[in-house]
Design a protein that fits this description.
Layout: E1 3-5, H1 11-21, E2 26-28, E3 41-42, E4 44-46, H2 51-65, H3 68-74, E5 76-79, E6 83-88, E7 92-96, E8 101-104, E9 107-110, E10 113-118, E11 125-127, E12 130-134, E13 137-141, E14 148-152, E15 157-159, E16 162-176, H4 181-197, H5 206-222
Antiparallel strand pairs: 1-14, 2-4, 3-7, 4-6, 5-16, 6-16, 7-15, 8-9, 10-14, 10-16, 11-16, 12-13, 12-15
Helix pairs in contact: 4-5
Bound molecules: nickel (II) ion.
Length: 225
């Protein structure tokens, strides 16, 4: 399942994030690519190890970690460190598959889900679509600034060349408590159903109790904690 979550970053927050990005230093993005992806990665990455970079990292991560739709769709166990990239002047990130395991906080994180948080509006750059490949077709994404595309890390994907302007984006990975994507989708659908049913049924109704029971029992059955 792939979803776009609109306005995960509000306009005021986005302005403050972009103002901070102007103060950071940038380096060659190939430094953080895996061995196979290094040769196809042509972009710059913000140095988030400075004091101001750490604050920015925390600011973005704290927004993502509490967003109800992201939590429901991804069921995160852990988030990777975030990367903020800038792509311009024919920069791109050619077709690749993300590393399956990433060193995060002294432990390996299994990348179940990848996400791209767009920090530039589509009218600020030409090209730069996030393209995700499926057998027989390619999905292209170029949403508004503040929107996040969440997709399974199992897919080959790329960032098309940016032929004009500059594309700012933040990317990261999630290890899910629910490893299997079909199971995550079942839980996502049931959770959405619960939200819509709560307008019609009381929490004590047999309908809501039964739904809650089954969501809880599936979580017990499927979660890796
Ligand atoms: Ni990637």
């Amino acid at each position: 399942m792939l979803i776009t979550i609109s306005n995960i970053i509000r306009k005021e927050e986005l302005e403050s994030i972009r103002a901070t990005l102007n103060k950071l230093s940038w380096r060659d993005g190939a430094s953080t690519a895996g061995v196979d992806a290094k040769s196809v990665k042509k972009n710059q990455q913000a140095d988030l190890s400075s004091e101001i970079g750490k604050i920015l990292h925390k600011q973005i991560l704290e927004i993502l970690q509490v967003h109800p739709v992201l939590l429901s769709a991804a069921r995160p166990k852990r988030f990777s460190r975030l990367i903020v990239s800038q792509t311009r002047g024919e920069g791109h990130y050619g077709p690749h598959i993300d590393n399956a395991l990433m060193e995060t906080g002294g432990r390996l994180l299994r990348t179940d889900l990848s996400f791209t948080l767009f920090l530039s509006n589509p009218d600020e750059y030409e090209g730069g679509e996030l393209s995700i490949q499926y057998p027989g077709f390619t999905q292209r994404h170029k949403p508004s600034a503040g929107d996040l595309v969440l997709y399974p890390s199992t897919q080959i994907h790329e960032v098309a060349p940016v032929t004009q302007g500059s594309r700012l984006a933040c990317v990261g990975w999630i290890e899910s408590t629910i490893r299997d994507q079909m199971r995550r989708e079942v839980l996502f659908d049931l959770t959405n159903l619960k939200v819509s049913m709560s307008n019609k049924y009381t929490p004590q109704s047999v309908e809501m109790l039964t739904l809650n029971k089954n969501i809880s029992n599936l979580l017990r059955h499927w979660s890796e904690t």
